Amino acid sequence: LNTPKELPRDLQNYLDEAENGVIYFSMGGNLRGNDMEESKRKAIIKVFSQLKQRVLLKWDNDTLPRQPDNVKLGKWLPQQDILAHPKIKLFVTHGGLLSVIEAIYHGVPVVGIPVFGDQEMNMAVAEAYGYGKLLRFSDLTEEAFRAALTEVLNNDRYRENAIRRSRIMHDQPMKPLDKAMYWIEYVLRHNGAPHLRTSALNLRWFQVLCLDVVLFAAITMFVTTFAVYKVIVITCRSRSTKLKLKKPTKKKN
């Protein structure tokens, strides 16, 4: 990720002056605020109005009906630069991959409200690693939203896990861009670096898919099963024949 840039003066002041921290809310471009069900929109706004934290809300309009005093709107917001600010306590997101990566990079816990695609899977991973809370959009109510925010804000393990994941992401011998440049130049220096190419390029398509191995295994299993079956049948017939031969005949008076 790029180095965070300086925030616009109004945003910088809004974040700096937040005594109890700031919650950043953005559903990306997947779900516009105007397209959200009114009941869900009202639930979100009502919960925000009851918080002691300030809320920075990515919103499509310049105004918000019944906008709480602790909520600031923005049609476009520099997300990564905002997440880098130390006053950000929580990121409410749709769970897109880039948003989750940016949250991890800056050590910010998340509450994810996935809408479609890979978003639910991304949030399931965040929940499994302990730096996020998953709240399905279909389950979004005032009570559920308040419970999710309260859980992540008041439980230190979410921030601790987010910071731990951030340290892991940052612990690299070189920056990702420098690494990409190194390997591009490496390939150019070694004429395409054929020694790094996978041997799978020299195989036929059915070998790459291991169809020859699967076919061999299937034939082996079939032959073995058939042989065992024939042995059992022959054994049973032989035993039956012997029993018939040993069966005593009745004597006539």
TrEMBL record:
Membrane topology, from the record: Single-pass membrane protein
Keyword field contains 4Fe-4S: no
Pfam families with a match to the protein in the record: UDPGT (PF00201)
GO cellular-component term (any): membrane
CDD domains the UniProt entry points to: GT1_Gtf-like (cd03784)
Entry keywords, A to Z: Glycosyltransferase, Membrane, Transferase, Transmembrane, Transmembrane helix
Domain of life: Eukaryota
Transmembrane segments: 205-229
Record Gene3D superfamilies: Glycogen Phosphorylase B
Localization, UniProt: Membrane
Reactions it catalyzes: glucuronate acceptor + UDP-alpha-D-glucuronate = acceptor beta-D-glucuronoside + UDP + H(+)
MF annotations from Gene Ontology: glucuronosyltransferase activity
Documented EC number(s): 2.4.1.17
Family that this chain belongs to: Belongs to the UDP-glycosyltransferase family.
Name of the featured protein: UDP-glucuronosyltransferase
